[in-house]
Each structure stands twice: as structure tokens, then as C-alpha cells.
Prior knowledge:
The chain has about 110 residues and is mainly beta. It has strands at about 1-10, 10-15, 15-20, 25-30, 40, 45-55, 60-70, 80, 95, 100-110. The protein is about 0% helix and about 50% strand.
Amino acid sequence: MAAALLREHGPAFARQLLVTGLPQGPFLVATTVRGSPNGGNRAEHVTNWNLRLSRRFGFPPAATVSADLLNATNAAHRLQESDLSGPSFNQRLPVAIQPPRFMRVELRYAF
């Protein structure tokens, strides 16, 4: 039996301004430095717990049964946040959310 803890820091991102109304069409302009400690932005870190249980049966033929529980805490962390400048930028609205808890079962058979 083994448990794994994966801790990541959120990705760096630059605040962006959507410019519209020009003949060439809309485009994005970076308005802050990306990920710089002197003024860049970073998304919140994500702590993710995954658990694996495994059992091997040694009689011939050999078999292994495993079960993985991914995102055991089911916390629904924000993985990506809106980077568009505007009144709602400081609310850090989520664009992508961590997938829900998931279980995977595996059976290996060696002959």
C-alpha cells in the first residue's frame, strides 16, 4: 500500500487586455510581466492526493490487482484563472477546475 502527495505551484500568467474595434480584428496585449516576482501573477497552488492499493497473488499464473483513487480529497481546486483585465480580474474567476474524484481498477495477468 502506498500514498502519494503531489504539490504543485500554479502556473505563471500575465494580465492581458483584449483590444477590439480595430480593422485587423481583436487581439490580446500583455499588461503585466509574466510570473516575475516583481509584479507577475501566479495561480493558486494545487495539493492533490492520490492513493494506490495493490496486491500480488504469486500462485502460477501470477496476477496483480490494483486500485487507484485519484484526487482523493475531491477539493475542486482552480487550475486556471481568467487573465483578462477588467473589473472582475481581482476576483480571479476560474476557467478550469480540477477533475472530480476518480477510481481506476486494474487486473494484470501473467502467464
